[in-house]
Amino acid sequence: MTIVSGFLGAGKTTLVNRLLSEPGGRRIAVLVNDFAAVNIDEELIRFQSEDTIGLTNGCACCSINGDLVNAIQRLVEREEPPDAIVLEASGLADPRGIAQVALANPAIRLDAILTLVDCETFPERIRDERTRPTMLAQLSAADIVVMSKSDLIEDRRDMIKGLIESAAPGRTVLEAMHGDIPADIVLGVNASPSSTFGCSDTGHHTSFASTTRSWSTPADGDAIMRALRELPPNVIRAKGIFCFKDDEQRRFVYQRVGKRESLEAVSAPSSIAQHASRLVLIGFSEQWDEAEVSRLIP
């Protein structure tokens, strides 16, 4: 098992999709966990099969242990079990807790924990006392730290790498754009555990709140995009899959990390009903204003 960790918006799903598109001859099973009630990340896995398993709402390290144990057991008991299991953890999970659950099964060997860092937002998040404990837990658990979106930082590269090395000394640090890391590097690491496994007591999941929205008919694209751009700054992560009225044959994936946003046309995920749309918003619980969010996006 390889655990792909990293804070909200770090690029975990992009890396998992890269592994599935070029698995290096391996049969890979994917377990996907999301913090919100709607598992958008599972739906964004492009090469879904019976080996893509979504885990229920919550932080994987402390609230879905039963689901995780059962999913692993089902995989290892197959007549042709996978060569590798990749678990994409929630952006708010402490990967040590996940590793502890995985290692309880004697058929599983923990290969490595990869922690992705969004280079563009990392300096701000690592200094913010609301997000720092979660990021430090993820970094300290890592065997390999992956600097994602490094093309957006240019002259700050050395500073950001220094922050990472200070938070996670002695770890291997790689750079990757668009999840472009060969499977032979990510899988088969066979790393020794960097520390004693066990979920930290930082309260990482209680510091955040989430809201989900679903539409069963095509949405008004202009109205949705206006509303998303008016969301309050305490919404630090947004991700959604939309069917718009003026282009019902395609789906559009919306991503927002901090102030940066993107909207990309994709083929329709088979897991979503025709014309349906889904949206997840995540932010700081202490500042969460559900009334304001509902006003903007009913």
Task: Tell me about this structure.
Helix content is 28%, strand content 27%. The chain folds into two domains: 2-186, P-loop containing nucleotide triphosphate hydrolases (Rossmann fold); 208-296, Hypothetical Protein Yjia, Chain: A,domain 2 (2-Layer Sandwich), CATH 3.30.1220. The strands form two sheets. Strands 3-2-4-1-5-6-7 form a seven-stranded parallel beta sheet, sandwiched between helices. The protein has a five-stranded antiparallel beta sheet with strand order 8-12-9-10-11, with no helix packed on it. Strand 10 (247-257) and strand 11 (260-266) form a beta hairpin. It has helices at 12-21, 40-43, 65-76, 95-103, 122-127, 132-141, 157-167, 183-186, 221-229, 290-296, and strands spanning 2-6, 28-32, 52-54, 84-88, 112-118, 144-148, 172-176, 208-215, 235-244, 247-257, 260-266, 277-284. It is globular and about 50 Å long. It is α/β, with parallel strands linked by helices.
Give the secondary structure arrangement, pairings included.
Layout: E1 2-6, H1 12-21, E2 28-32, H2 40-43, E3 52-54, H3 65-76, E4 84-88, H4 95-103, E5 112-118, H5 122-127, H6 132-141, E6 144-148, H7 157-167, E7 172-176, H8 183-186, E8 208-215, H9 221-229, E9 235-244, E10 247-257, E11 260-266, E12 277-284, H10 290-296
Parallel strand pairs: 1-4, 1-5, 2-3, 2-4, 5-6, 6-7
Antiparallel strand pairs: 8-12, 9-10, 9-12, 10-11
* SSE pattern: EHEHEHEHEHHEHEHEHEEEEH
Q: How many DSSP E strands?
A: 12
DSSP summary: helix tally: 10
Q: How much of the sequence is in beta strands?
A: 25-35%
- The helix content, as a percent range, equals 25-40%
Task: Look at the structure and give the CATH class of the largest domain.
Answer: Alpha Beta
Instruction: Tell me the radius of gyration.
Output: 18 Å
CATH topology of the largest domain, which one?
A: Rossmann fold
- Corresponding CATH superfamily of the largest domain: P-loop containing nucleotide triphosphate hydrolases
